[in-house]
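Predict the assembly for these two chains.
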Amino acid sequence: MNDAYARLQARFTRIATLGEASAVLGWDSATMMPAGGGAARGDQLAVLAGLSHEMLTAPAMADDLDAAQPPADPWHEANLGLMRHAHRRATAVPADLVEAQSRANAACEQVWRGARANADFAAVRPQLTEVVKLVREQAAALSPALNLSPYDALMDGYQRGIGAQDVAPIFADYAKFLHEALPRAEEMQARRGDAIPPEGPFPPAATEALCRRLSRAAGLEDAHSRLDRSTHPFCGGTPTDVRITTRYYEHDFAPSVMGVLHETGHALYERGLPQSFARQPVGEAAGMAAHESQSLIVEMQACRSDAYLGWLGGQLLQTYGGAADRYAPENLGRLTRHIARGFIRVDADEMTYPAHVILRFQLEQALIAGDLAVADLPGAWNDGLQALLGITPPDDAKGVLQDIHWYDGAIGYFPSYTLGAMAAAQLMAAARKAAPGLDAALAQGDLSVLVGWLRTNVHAKGSLLGFNDLLLAATGKPLDPTDFLAHIQARYLTA
Amino acid sequence: MNDAYARLQARFTRIATLGEASAVLGWDSATMMPAGGGAARGDQLAVLAGLSHEMLTAPAMADDLDAAQPPADPWHEANLGLMRHAHRRATAVPADLVEAQSRANAACEQVWRGARANADFAAVRPQLTEVVKLVREQAAALSPALNLSPYDALMDGYQRGIGAQDVAPIFADYAKFLHEALPRAEEMQARRGDAIPPEGPFPPAATEALCRRLSRAAGLEDAHSRLDRSTHPFCGGTPTDVRITTRYYEHDFAPSVMGVLHETGHALYERGLPQSFARQPVGEAAGMAAHESQSLIVEMQACRSDAYLGWLGGQLLQTYGGAADRYAPENLGRLTRHIARGFIRVDADEMTYPAHVILRFQLEQALIAGDLAVADLPGAWNDGLQALLGITPPDDAKGVLQDIHWYDGAIGYFPSYTLGAMAAAQLMAAARKAAPGLDAALAQGDLSVLVGWLRTNVHAKGSLLGFNDLLLAATGKPLDPTDFLAHIQARYLTA
């Protein structure tokens, strides 16, 4: 190891530490901050982001990246590679384009809120046109620097190690499968009959206490985490101080309980990252799809399994009282594993969710390629959803306006959701094979067998490997939708 | 105005914005953070402090400070003066001394916690000796740069515009006054008889809701503030997002209620700072003594007045129920204005509090002058307290070990408490003269007359004036203890 590499480590530690400060401030904005603090908070986050960017693009950084010789060790070699990658991304985009995007995204997001409320796409069309134009410029600038196609260069910002060419055939196959399988699944569901809805009210304080217990039982330690309330559930904070949030409803416990288990999956990933590479690029989570695989393996694979629901029913009955049959395993299964063709992605079940992602993946590729104009987006959206799910949104609020992502300049992110869901199924299959006691433990509400396996095979790997290589090392194959299909088959297509 | 001054304004805005980020992170540490986040938080705050220090001492900063020409306006001229002053303070102390102090203070504070728990001064003597040695070096470095005596150079770090020579005669007179007046006050108090203690329990949630109402009624807006819980009450956050804290006791409401009113005074000061100079040195609060004057004018002058207590009694009765005579004005007065010779500064009443400060002022001046060795500190403490209040602590935990300040390297801060108390009385007398409806409003729980006057005469002045000049402009005279003595006379020495 030479001095240049040591200096780089120190600088990246500093950048990551600033990132931690921003993460805590971001959490505070969403959970604690009085409204009047918003403008100042925006300035605080902008100054921190500006300083990080200055450090990352400083001339001394470039010199050291050229001269660096890490110890002959795959971790340090990967670390230097990620440092160079981050520097390449940061320097490829001209400063005035970064600024223009920041302004355009903020302006568009602002207008979008009103446009969505009024189901009025035309109101935000000019702003979205500008945002898309600038993202295309960004993609064009990143593409040669990263030696990736423009769209893949955007995807790379969210998930390294997988591109549109890997994803497209998998998504196409799933669309085909869904076309045939969804009617069958609906028919079987109809034959099983509806769930008996549990009787509320579900006092938020009781649900919150239950969520804390469930999260703790899943392995999240009080000394290193918090559970708070926010409008949109998220996992934030830092690896030694993870902050998860949810919201509570008097009339329903399920979204809060399943939401907290989902965020607990994210939090456990952060908690399990390799401490010896803390604050180094290689010590970070492997990307957004990898992160989503960890939330979904906990929420969808483990906690919506028959085994776990059997245990959870007892906890629910103890928390809320009432008729016991509401919380019996079969009823809980019908309740938490109900499929439905819907317009809204965030409300979708796991079988139809990929259709929402596939639609966005198709449209955003076309937008970046210049094959689709923003003005044609609502029509393309409605046609696409009709083709995928056989339904058409009654208005654009339930269609093209529903998600913030594009209006905030985030293009290339959507595939991560479904890649995460498929990876979760693939990892679960491998974990079940490697650790036969896994389901017996889930039936006791105990996730430690699963989480122990994930810690070794995913969490502790940090960013050593890209998405496909991480799956290869953990499961013996790169991303393979077979396990997800088998999971859907077993859960929704088996009598 | 030239470019150099414009660049300075931008840089100081950035430094202040980083300071805001640190303030929110500091608040979070004390209120929200799980214990396991402590180490990372320390790193985050250290990185932010390091970046601020780098910006403040950068060569370009020195060049611009030399070349700057502000607009011909007292605010901008004062702003440039304060920029130069901050730069002078930051560059006067060598970086290795700053680092040595940071390490020594942290180590000493750590050992002090155990030493205080065991009432064992000898355990922390080596660490305190090192801390004092380094503070003396710091004072020696600051002294020529600021053209102040070494002790005044330390005081200047907490409160600009007043020095030991101004303070010493005022403190000496008060010590003499107390010697004669305290026995008289005690005798009168004994003659009045004890307060009937209100019956608890006082449910923390009820007290918290009451505190919120009182703070709001005093003028602190929900949109720009929060009230939370912490072990040690404080006011933190930023001017548009002020965060106050307190703690609650089942057996007593008074410390929480009076504590929140105290912190509300601090918070109102921050809220009233001049927005047109936000994030500039001249837009900040005028110093620690000025800040304490604002907390004490609300807590001690306004909210322990007969007028306010008359109104508060109704609020308490409504909150807790029980026998009404407990919350009658005279009983509340006896309860919240009880004087007692005690060992502990933070528990002291307003009449004996200055004795605790005078003791520390004498001892820390002697420490910095080299006239008192750390080894002789416990004896000097006990002798001093005996001379001032006629009592001797049973052990060092109730004596020299009670306060964190010295063990954390804070020397020159203690006078601010009593300067604030005296300034509060002086400002209250001036406000009463200028706004005759002030007490009638207090009798309705309405602080707006007082706060309105303070906003114009103190808050909106920011750091335009030093401590004595601020008082001169607001009250027609520099710090003058006459009003404080008259206040003590009226409240404790009048039948």
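The CA atoms of residues 28 and 237 of chain A lie 9 Å apart. Residues 1-92 of chain A form one domain.
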